[in-house]
Amino acid sequence: MKLTVSQKLLDKAIKSVNKAVPAKALQPILNNIYLKTLDNKLLVNATDLDFWIEATIPSTNLEEGSIAVSAKKIEEISSKFFDEELNLSFANESKVLKIGSEKIKFDLIGFPGEDFPAFEKPDLENQSPVIINRQDFLNFINVVQISASRFDLNNILGGIYIAIREEYNQALDSKEYFLDLASSDGGRLSAFSHKLPDLKESNFKHKVVIVPIKIMLDIQKILDTSIDDNLSIYFLSSQVVFKTEDRYIVTRLLEGNYPNYLELVPTGHDKRAVIDRKEFLSALDRVSVMANEITNMVKLSLSAETLKLDSNNLDFGNATQSIPVTHYQGEDIEINFNIKYLIDFLKVVDSELVIFLIHHKESPAIIKPESGAEHIYVIMPLKAS
């Protein structure tokens, strides 16, 4: 194995695939990443046997070959070079990967590539992908992931629900398709729906996947390093594949039936307010200083022109701030929420204004960006102690 490759691209690829390296590997070989030359490309792989990542970068290959090397050490080494061309070479007899530039050289003990588990890619020959703008998908995940449970990661609520939904449009006498994403930890729900205008007919054998939140966050970071503007998503029976020109990700899924989250979206709200997002977020940030560390409770008092925020801590004191609201409809109301849940939502939304919909102080409320009807956030109120 002998090649030259860009340090910048190699470093980015290694950092991407290392997210699949297990913290505690049952097989020592899984602490390594796999490098393989193929058709003037360098393939960089890592896996924990549930989660596979392959990054592809251009290289000038002088001798074909493969090697497995310590994931930790190769990442440390690749970051020590400048933005330059690197020379890599490996001979099975020596079991040493030589990495060097004009002035810096490293020798890293490795293993023959055959020792690494084979990356058997799923057969996608007869599978139809959803093709979507990569950055759009990353934005969708970002606004949905806040509500996934971080406590029981093997529970169905410890994942992101991703599905293809079809609806019949009577006016057009045709079907329309949507990419739906959702997450919930029981105290709140994030849901996002994106119309797929280029999807004309459904050829999908499987239409629903639930990806563990930890893996989904890693996938988000990996796809962020891709050079490709488009992302292909393949829905398989027990796996999902995320594929771009230079990234190939396969992951296991959470098993079980996800709750029908659309049934959890409340209706019949008779109180409505429009609030400046940044002003609301700043006010919450200030009064959070005095929120109870256990309940994180904040009281919101809504009236015709004002939203008043109150937090109270028996050990330290209290905080109060009022901000204006517009287009208020309904009677005055006082309602309590987990302040962190409100802050989480307002941080990931890019709309200037948000709409608050409330029915009763003990009923779920809805917050959504004024400029995005496809995104909703349902939040349960807290009872005052």
Provide an overview of this structure.
The protein has 385 residues and is α+β, with helices and mostly antiparallel strands. It has three domains: 114 residues, Roll (DNA Polymerase III, Chain A, domain 2), CATH 3.10.150.10; 132 residues, DNA Polymerase III, Chain A, domain 2 (Roll); 115 residues, DNA Polymerase III, Chain A, domain 2. The chain is 16% helix and 43% strand. The strands form three sheets. It has a nine-stranded antiparallel sheet. An eight-stranded antiparallel β-barrel has the order 1-4-3-2-5-8-7-6. The chain has a four-stranded antiparallel sheet with strand order 20-19-18-22. Strand 10 and strand 11 form a beta hairpin. Helix 5 packs antiparallel against helix 6. It is elongated and about 80 Å long. It starts with a strand and ends in a 6-residue tail after the last strand. The mean pLDDT is 93.
